[in-house]
Structures are given as structure tokens and as C-alpha cells.
Amino acid sequence: MIAFHVLGQLEVRAGARDLAPTAPRVKAVLALLALNANRVVSTDTLFAELWDDRPPRSAATTLQTYVYQLRRILDSVPRGERRCEIVTKAPGYELRTGRTDAERFLTLAEQGRCLWRQGHVTEAAERLRQALGLWRGEALADINLGPELTMHKAHLCELRLRVLELRIQADARLGRHQELIPELRSLVAEHRLNERLHAQLIDSLRAAGYRAEALQAYQDLRKVLRTELGLEPTPEVQRLQAEVLNGAHGGSVTALLRTG
């Protein structure tokens, strides 16, 4: 059965084989169809992705050629094994398939959020970890992005970050603070203005007994915010710092990190 992967480099997996096209615009068409699996993508949307607001006169014919090339790739797998097809359906094309890693990610993420809301923290952490494990790097990593795919990528990356934040919160609830500290240090370096991640680092350092490092992590955040945005940390983060100073085990971080 063919599986379409977009959470990393584009892959079209048929067993051990990767059937992904190499031509940049053909890859872009396939990526847009895969991200909208089982939904029609209009020709206007595909034109916008491939040529922005300047489609050539031959755009319709060229797009038909790209779709033909994709159909030939799928046809190289026996129909009973591939269970997918690209159909022409007004006002455009539809990739009919049940196997995309993006859809699987969204399903696992929603299951994790539901488990979290129900108080099943261990199960939620595991389900969210499974969702994040589907990512093989940067989404659509090997595709020249037009405006449509750029929006899709931004949306996926934002969802991934929110799932990651919730998984970290679940692990923290389970008392895994010591294990979280290296990961959180890396994340705050990557997402310098994300106060939620900074707050979780401060809280995990405090919970692990590193009071001085927790206070330094707060000062690092304060310096970044003042330098880059001219802002102070939110009141919740300021209360968290006060709790660290006083040796308290309050709940400021819980309010700030409430997710899902």
C-alpha cells in the first residue's frame, strides 16, 4: 500500500521503494494533493502554488502533464497494492488515499489531547510522543515552496510546536523534570521568544533542585524579551520567579502552560 510522507522530505513509499518524483513542480503538485488528501484541490490553487499570480498561457496543459506524470508513478504499483488514485473532479484534482503521515500526526495529536483532558497523563504523553515521532525533519524539506505550501508548512510547524509543548507538560506532570532539562535548553535556544517553553525550563530546573539555574533561566528570558521586544515577562512568569525565590511550589507555570 502506498503511503505519502510530507513531515520531512517528500516520500511516496511502496514497501521499501520511494517513488517520489524528482521534478520540482511535480513534487509541489503531489505535496499539495497529499496535504489535502481526499479533498479536491482546485486548479486555481495549484496555479497559485506553481506560478504565484503569473500563470503562463500553457498553465492548464502543463498542470495536466504534471498530473499525468504522477498517475504514471502510482500506476507502477499494482492497483490492489496501492489503494490510491488521483481523480479529476471539478474544480480540480483529488488524491484519494488513506495513508499520509500528516493525517496520522493530526489523529494521534488529537487523541493525545483528549487523553490529557480526561486526566490520563501517562497515556497522553505516549500518544503525543508517537505523533511527534512521525516527523523526520523539517516538513516539506526538499520542496521549493510557493504560497500555498508555505501556508501549509507554517500551520503544520505551529501544530507540531503545540503538541511538543503539551507532551513536555505531560512529562513534567509525571515528574520527569530531570530528563526534560536538556531538551528544554535546546528548545528555548531555538524558540527564544516562546515564554511557555522558558517557563517550563524554569519550573523543571526548580523541581529538579537547581534553584540558582532556574533563577538564571528567568534572567535569560527577561534579557531576551527586553532586548528584542522591549517587554517584561508575563505576570505568570514573574510569579514563577517569585516562587523560585521563595522556595515555594506554586502553580503559576500551570496557568501559563495550560494547553489542549
From TrEMBL:
Residues 1-97 bind DNA. Residues 1-97 form the OmpR/PhoB-type domain. InterPro entries: AfsR-DnrI-RedD_regulator, BTAD, OmpR/PhoB-type_DNA-bd, Sig_transdc_resp-reg_C-effctor, TPR-like_helical_dom_sf, WH-like_DNA-bd_sf. Keywords: DNA-binding, Transcription, Transcription regulation, Two-component regulatory system. It holds the Pfam family Trans_reg_C. Belongs to the AfsR/DnrI/RedD regulatory family. PANTHER family: TRANSCRIPTIONAL REGULATOR REDD, TRANSCRIPTIONAL REGULATOR REDD-RELATED. This is AfsR/SARP family transcriptional regulator. It comes from Streptomyces sp. 900105755.
